[in-house]
Here is the input.
Amino acid sequence: MKVTAQNLDGLAVARKVKLQVAERVRELAQPLGLAVVLLAADPASRTYAESKVRACREVGIRCEVHDWTHMTDAHEVYQNLCELSANQSLQAIMVEQPYPAFLDPVILYRCIPPEKDVEGISHENLGRLLLGRPIVVAATAAACMRLLDEYAVPMEGKRAVVVGRSNIVGKPLASLLMARNATVTICHRHTPNLAEETRRADILVVSVGQAHLIGPEHVKPGAVVIDVGINFVGGHMVGDVDTEGVRGVAGAITPVPGGVGPVTTALLLLNLVETAQRQLASAT
Ligand code: NDP
Here is the structure.
């Protein structure tokens, strides 16, 4: 009988997280503000920003989008970001991906103070995660873990393979999986035989940015597959995994759209509320 993988429904998980966030926003009873900065004239990036505005509205958080796509001078961007970060009416700042090539992401992250970093990508927050003492966890990596936890996927003693070693997804996720006692392998462009590695995975996470890189031949029967990738093919959003092909082999899989993306947005909002609570606590 042909296997059909279980759907790991990110929209359902995101709804649950947003209900928690809305409740905590009501309890806080003070205005909360998020600034989303757009740096690249990329239609996808604008779409992500708009989806954050909608998600914020649902839970009672003010979200302002700052369009800096006209800026071409790196120092101007860094300076503006530092100034925006100092704005007392904003509890959180984030920059939407992709970043233009003239910017150094490491300097960019430095301009956002760790206490306003809801993406968990500041030096301090990434460092704390590596040290096993996280405060704000990189939101996309946290979304992958949340999906695994919501569907009670066992991690301890399992073999996890992460394809992609970005600072904001692959590396923090490897740390989180290790902390849950999985045996972790990270693959990248220089991995000689990708399918050989990925076929060993009980849990396979793909964060590359290449449509349909992963097909059924890359997947161990029964594996749990988390597809982080967002690509646009013929105007349609697709992941890094050939979902339909892999469905016949995997035990469970996240769809794109409707998988990791909405959970990432919901966890950003949760990070924001927790950030605001810490800011309040330190002010009293
Ligand atoms: P990056 O774009 O920063 O890096 C891509 C990674 O993939 C690199 O490590 C690269 O290897 C690796 N890679 C590229 N091609 C191959 C290949 N053929 N075989 C194996 N590895 C390869 O990654 P991000 O993590 O920032 O983004 C990845 C994707 O996830 C994008 O589509 C992005 O839009 C999406 N994304 C989705 C989010 C969500 O919420 N759903 C949030 C964040 C990102 P090397 O290091 O050797 O160059």
Q: What stands out?
A: The CA atoms of residues 149 and 155 lie 9 Å apart.
